[in-house]
């Protein structure tokens, strides 16, 4: 939404976004218009692959982070890290954002395919 002029009094409007609600509000007379805002990531239907490029199968932080992302137990995560180009997650963008943060905090570098725009 772009601030324009108030339909009632002609004053400038202020745009506000809170969660999934977005609106234009007149500070002068109180007129407003509100609509639903859906973030692009919420509409993204692409299935992304998250791969680890520097995982160490002897590093407990790496193993724990991969176990969490992959939904597997510790030993399976360690075996996954022994692979070349291990796929640790495949799924929707919203989950990739969360897992990317956790994996990077553990010191892992990632390759997300296709190119991840968020």
Describe this structure as you would to a colleague:
There is one protein chain. α2 crosses α3. By secondary structure, the chain is an alpha+beta fold. The mean pLDDT is 94. The protein is rod-shaped. It has two domains: 37 residues, no CATH class; 72 residues, Ribosomal Protein L30, Chain: A (2-Layer Sandwich), CATH 3.30.1390. β1 and β2 form a beta hairpin. The strands form two sheets. A three-stranded antiparallel sheet has the order 1-2-3, with no helix packed on it. Strands 5-4-6 form a three-stranded antiparallel sheet, with helices on one face. Helix content is 31%, strand content 26%.
What's a concise summary of this model?
This protein has helices spanning 40-43, 60-70, 74-81, 93-105; strands spanning 13-18, 21-26, 32-36, 48-52, 87-91, 110-113. The chain is of the alpha+beta class. The protein has 2 domains: 1-37, no CATH class; 42-113, Ribosomal Protein L30, Chain: A, CATH 3.30.1390.
């Amino acid at each position: 939404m772009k601030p324009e002029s108030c339909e009632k009094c002609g004053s400038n409007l202020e745009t506000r976004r809170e969660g999934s609600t977005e609106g234009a509000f007149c500070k002068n007379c109180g007129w407003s218009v509100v609509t639903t805002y859906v973030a692009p990531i919420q509409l993204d239907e692409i299935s992304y692959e998250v791969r680890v490029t520097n995982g160490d199968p002897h590093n407990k932080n790496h193993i724990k982070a991969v176990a969490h992302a992959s939904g597997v137990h510790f030993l399976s995560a360690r075996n996954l890290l022994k692979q070349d180009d291990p796929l640790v997650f495949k799924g929707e963008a919203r989950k990739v954002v969360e897992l990317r943060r956790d994996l990077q905090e553990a010191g892992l570098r990632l390759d997300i395919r296709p190119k991840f725009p968020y």
